[in-house]
Records
---
Amino acid sequence: MGRITDTVKALIIANVLFFVGTMILGDYAYQLFSLWFFKNENFQIWQILTHMFMHGGFMHILFNMYALWAFGSPIEQRLGQKKFLFFYFSCGIGAALIHSLVNYYQVESAYTALVNAGLNSIEIQNILDTGQFPNAILNSVSRDTVESMYTAYNTPAVGASGAIYGVLVAFGMLFPNVELFLIFVPVPIKAKYFIPVLIAIDLFSGVTGYSLFGGGIAHFAHVGGALFGFIMMYYWKKNQFNQNRWD
């Protein structure tokens, strides 16, 4: 940690302005700028970017912006402004892609199961729109499958967390021996151990559905941001491109 860099400062300001705007506009802002399932009527193409500036509450934006300042500034100093921006938004878009693909799998799998159970497309769309379904279908399809489909279809993704996880990966690869502190572990842990464990927890939570940090977290978006961050940093380091700043 050190001084805040110009690009990180601009990103934090933009996130705060969006957050204040959502408090003023309320649900309309979330409908317009959050990332919805691509078949949902609320989906718009710009949401792939704008969802990165939306947050679900004060603690959500606080933790994300703290991480952006603490880990993003040294990454920008190493990569340069333009390259850091490319990296940051690529991780955020990658997170959105992985999150959307997982949602697509959940919706399509449940849709197929419901068709096999005898429901037609109109009846299934009614379930997607209302969340209501006849109890008789539970003889063929589990409640968790139907509810997961409804949630994936109707719950928008918000937050910079996917991009932040990419930044965390970059930090771990560029500064592997820097010691970090976990709130619930009162001993320093090197970044090269801390960050993989954090990602593994998200992967575990995404696969099992059991979240160690509460509900409403898009775990696969975190994993997606981390994955895209790793791919880019691995490529740049392998080709020594990390030494060639873009500004």
---
Amino acid sequence: MRAIEFDSNNRFTVLVTRLLILFGVLFLWWLGTHQKWLSPFFFGDPLGVAVRIVDWFVTGSIYRHLYTTLVETMLAFVIGTVLGLACGLWLALSPFLATVFDPFIKAMNSMPRLIFAPIFALWFGLGIWSKVALGVTLVFFVVFFNVFQGVREVSPTVLSNTRMLGANSRQLLRHVYLPSATSWVFSSLHNAIGIAFVGNVVGEYLGSEKGVGYLILLAEGVFDINSVIAGILVLTVFALILDTAVSMVEDHLLRWRPVAGQTVATSA
């Protein structure tokens, strides 16, 4: 009996369905504001939002803000990922140190890290590094716990067999621990992208002179809901673009994984 499979030819159908849902939501939004079921003052006007986005890109007024936010996000994402990967591997391979640092890590993870934004602004100023520092604190723990768990999930049987074949510690790290952690790492990176954006935008809210978060803050100050929604949509689109880039790298590096739905199950 064949297992349930997803036909790759249905990708076009999936795309069409997604577009129908998107345009359906936009139509309902437009209809609600056009018929005065929703107040445009509070919910914005979809046509006004579209005009604002086009105006930003045509005039180029958004580019310096977008560039600043993307640079902050990428720096926070990369630094937080590297630190989370290194610390996760280090503690996962050192049971004694993992036990020692366990309460400290749990305590730091339980802290509402967004409250550190004004502290980082005092330490690093109102430039990009205060936003990067906040983003790093958010990304780090997401990656750290996934790497730590991924290494801990390595099968003892696989480790025993690899050691019997004469593998040393470096070979175990390269051929056993890292491949095991990689899937967990990429699983966390999809969340880390969005979290990095959140950290940087919050930092821009609390003190900055440029960035999309700063642009949204200015719009809120004059009750320009169309610009607020436009800024949110721009951030969302670029977050999706970065997430797609992570997925492409993941597909390239994890080609060895079996593809779901390709296995054929048989029964007597």
